[in-house]
Amino acid sequence: MARHATRRDRSDTPQRKAALLAMMQESIALPTGCAFASDEEKTLWAIYTQARVPDDWRCLDLLNLFKVVQMETQIREQSRLLEVEGYMQGAAGGKLVKNPRLGVVRSLQMLQLQLLRVLKIHAIPDTPSNMASRARDASRLSSAAKQEDDNLLSGRTV
Question: Which residues lie within the region annotated Disordered (predicted)?
Answer without folding.
Answer: 130-158
